Amino acid sequence: MATDTGKWIRYGLIALLFFGTALNYLDRQVLALLKPTLQVEFGWSDREFGHFGSAFQIATAVALLGIGWFIDRFGVRWGYGLAVAVWSLAGMAHAYASTVGQFVAARVTLAVAESVNTPAAMKSAATYLPIRERSVGIGVINSAANIGAILAPLTVPWIAITYGWQEAFIITGALGFVWLIFWWLGTSKLTPLGDAAIAATQPKEKGPPWRELLKERRTWAVAGAKLLTDLVWWFILFWAPDFFARQFGLGQAEIGGPTAVVYALAAVGALTSGILFPILLGRGMTPNGARKSSMFFYALLILPIPLALQAPNEWMAALIIGLALFAHQGFSTNIFGMTADIIPARQVGSVIAIGALVGNLSGAAMLEFAGWSLDSGYGYTPMFAMCASAYLLALLWIHIMQPKLEVVNSAE
Fold first, then answer.
1. 68 phi and psi angles, rounded to 5 deg
2. Domain Major facilitator superfamily (MFS) profile spans what residues (predicted)?
3. For 319-328, how does the pLDDT look when each residue is reduced to its tens digit (9 = 90+)?
4. Residue 15 CB coordination number (10 Å)
5. Which strand (E) or helix (H) includes residue 255?
6. Within 13 A of 49's CA, how many CA atoms are on the CB side?
7. If we measure between CA atoms, which residue out of 27, 39, 31, 57 comes closest to residue 240?
8. What's the pLDDT at 411?
9. Hey, what domains does the chain have and what are their CATH numbers?
10. Is residue 156 within 8 Å of residue 36, measured between CB atoms?
11. Cα–Cα distance between 160 and 39 in angstroms, integer?
12. What is the rounded distance in angstroms from the CA atom of residue 259 to the CA atom of residue 125?
């Protein structure tokens, strides 16, 4: 009976992390979905709107430098709970902002708090889930980002039309405090398992300094790939609702449907992204060939994205952009898989952090560039061209840095 109770407590943890991650993506998308209404309300230029997105990405990048210390200092239960409380308040604060500076301040606070989500969720899985449940748990948690990205366009425009744009921020932010009640009650009996229990009583082993990692071509292979490809995800996440509104003349109530289609296809990509590589391995390919062939396949799927600019309607455009995000998930999964293969185990976390840092910074640059391009009359053409070429360039970069991927972490 005690064993069954512990199992259900752990399943409850997975559910809580799933919904916390879904809220993370729900809250960050509210501003982008309300752009048509807010641009009329405040008279923002596209460049000013781009500042909101870039401020979020830069704040996230800076916050990543200290998230590990924060989680280690306060623990998952207190640290993650505090982060959700702060980002929920920051989301609600958007409702009371009236100037660009106030919106930027709310976005920066939201970004810093939301950056805790993934490290805290992964540490929770490593600390409280046995290895046989851990992989499934992490997969469920990772899928939540796409669920949040789908739910946001299906709910936020309706709330704004029905109750007002301020209420859209307040209602979505308030959901975090409902989640906090379940988090506090549901994690009260969690105890570390196995190695995590031992590690909790010992000094934490520090990873290698970044200056050492930056001397490694393997690190640059990962960082360059993230720099070139993450900007596509952040660009579409932030600007897709505006693209549908601008390109097809959709109103506030109409942009949710095609935006949801885009992220539904991204969710399918996330769920299937780990399949191709082992299939190619099973057919006799080397890890180097299988990994790079997988990346090449997904890079080809992204090439048609500029055709969305010529699509006859918003639904066809949504399918084209959704195919690109489907492929992004596949390519991104292979970057993470490559990292786990070629980077020594004790360095993986640090290299992933470096990749996330440069990915957020390139995303900030892309969002600023999009605002400039739209204000300058160039439209979405330059950004879609960059998206189409980014993944082939990333694969070329990986091949230049690592002509042959040498696996150092093998399960065999």
1. -60, -45
2. 13-406
3. 999 999 999 9
4. 16
5. none
6. 27
7. 31
8. 47
9. 1-205 (1.20.1250.20), 207-412 (1.20.1250.20)
10. no
11. 14
12. 31
